[in-house]
Design a protein that fits this description.
Blueprint: E1 4-7, H1 17-30, H2 39-43, H3 48-56, H4 61-72, H5 75-80, H6 91-101, E2 104-108, H7 113-120, E3 131-133, H8 146-154, E4 162-166, H9 169-177, E5 181-184, H10 193-198, E6 201-202, H11 209-213
Length: 217
Amino acid sequence: MIKAVLFDCDGLMFNTEAYAHGIWTRIASEHGVKLPEDFFMIITGAGRSTSDAFIHSVPGMDEILPEIRRQRFSDEVFQAMEKDSLTKPGLEELCAWLKEKGIRTAVCSSSGTHYVHTLLSTMTNPPSFDAVAGGDLVKKAKPDPEIFLLGASLLNTDPSECMVLEDSKQGIIAASRAGMRSCFIPDTIEPDDQMKELIDLQCESLHDVIGILEEMI
């Protein structure tokens, strides 16, 4: 039985991964930096403690990384965006349904807690989550399960009774290591063989999650 749902943030709740990929690609191209083919598969969903070594191994990246991160996490940029322009379809409906059913919810993101709240502020009517946990609250980032285990603890729910909604490889691995069910919702990457072995369920959008959960609560 599922008693809690843990949401990833970037790419799952908000259409920010494509926005981020554009920043990485544009600035890298402007400075003649070549991104490896698996660059986004590795960094998507991962915290800095997981991705930094890989990022710094890319020739020329150290020189442009500060500017990339400045643009990527600029409060001013997100606050200037049109309300609800980043919100993924089905997010509000899913959160309302979960609240109606008494299923507890948490955001468990590799990004910082302040950044998560910044993205929530881009919504006209942001959902009221029972907990918000960012990567600044844990020592180890995804694919380590710490962030999801923290989310379960904050919700006072056993990991086996949690469903994780994810769009990244690092998140799917973390959910499996946490002993939680996972539902993969594609955004910018397609599952590789390792992910396919670990993914429990897959939906095309957040709209479809309600139908799955109806049979699991």
